[in-house]
Design goal:
With about 220 residues, the protein is mainly beta. The chain has one helix at about 1-20, and strands at about 35, 45, 60, 65-70, 85-90, 100-105, 115-120, 125-135, 135-140, 145, 155-160, 165-170, 175-180, 190-195, 205-215. The strands form 2 sheets. Strands 1, 3, 4, 6, 11, 12, 13 and 15 form an 8-stranded antiparallel beta sheet that branches. Strands 2-5-14-7-8-9-10 form a 7-stranded antiparallel beta sheet, with no helix packed on it. β9 and β10 form a beta hairpin. Bound molecules: 2-acetamido-2-deoxy-beta-D-glucopyranose (5 copies). This is Alginate lyase 2 domain-containing protein.
Length: about 220
């Protein structure tokens, strides 16, 4: 039993190398070598316009988190000058190691200028990485295009933060799309939902998420 299990694992590893070698990297699971950090409700902190009940900007139904916000909504704290958001912050913060966010996202056509997933915290600035949707494209912050044609379909996002190596890697639908330096260590956490960009924001912004997981490499 154990031996055949080991043979199966060996076969899978060899298969992955062959696939990689053939440059069919699309079939590689970005979570390979990572361990699922089981999340429950205690890991979620909800952020929404401070004057609006959560149920008017968020619903969890049928295994899907649906977040929406309007560009003239209030920020999440009275006195904050940030753009409106409805987001889930994943607790607790991490400060070192290699961490990964995974989720399936759906962005309806019309949502634009919205951060849908981010790594908050950094040595320099407030964030390590923002992935935004503009006109169906995913961009790293405002300008660098990561992927296109993302409206009205489910797509898989894997966001790896190697804090020790100072790197961020983005996969969309299991294809590696971006590898970039991070902004230095800090008190770090992943957030997903919708958060208005500084400019070029649609009035209505929505994202849906399911199968959200956090992984860690040991
Ligand atoms: C939820 O996760 C926390 C932290 O990992 C753990 O301490 C707690 O026991 C879990 N609660 C349930 C109901 O599983
Ligand atoms: C809930 O999910 C099931 C299975 O994926 C689907 O058939 C059904 O239409 C969904 N219901 C709603 C209200 O989204
Ligand atoms: C999004 O909606 C606009 C306006 O209705 C339409 O022109 C465009 O083709 C749509 N894009 C996609 C990808 O469906
Ligand atoms: C960082 O966040 C603080 C508090 O929200 C804000 O005052 C400051 O402008 C932000 N800095 C940047 C570079 O966005
Ligand atoms: C915002 O829109 C203006 C005018 O269409 C354009 O020049 C600018 O590049 C856009 N900025 C972003 C961040 O997309």
């Amino acid at each position: 039993m154990k031996a055949s299990y080991r043979h199966l694992l060996l076969f899978l590893v060899v298969l992955i190398f062959f696939i990689d070698d053939a440059r069919m990297v699309s079939l590689v699971d970005p979570t390979y070598g990572f361990v699922d950090v089981m999340l429950n409700e205690s890991n979620f902190e909800y952020q929404k316009p401070y004057d609006t009940p959560l149920c008017q900007r968020y619903i969890y139904q049928n295994g899907t988190h649906r977040f929406w916000v309007y560009s003239d909504d209030k920020p999440h704290h009275l006195g904050s000058n940030t753009q409106p958001r409805t987001e889930i912050r994943i607790l607790p913060d991490y400060t070192s190691g290699v961490w990964q966010f995974e989720g399936l996202a759906f962005i309806p056509n019309g949502t634009s200028g919205a951060t849908i997933v981010q790594i908050h915290g950094a040595a320099h600035g407030n964030t390590t990485s923002l992935l935004r949707i503009y006109n169906g494209e995913m961009r790293y912050y405002s300008t660098q295009v990561i992927d296109t044609n993302l409206y009205d379909r489910w797509f898989k996002v894997n966001l790896i933060h190697d804090v020790d190596g100072g790197k961020v890697i983005v996969f969309v639908d299991n294809k590696k799309k971006l590898k970039i330096h991070d902004q230095g260590p800090g008190l770090l956490h992943f957030k997903f939902g919708v958060y208005g960009a500084p400019r070029n924001i649609s009035y209505y912004m929505e994202s849906r998420w399911k199968d959200v997981k956090i992984y860690k490499k040991y």
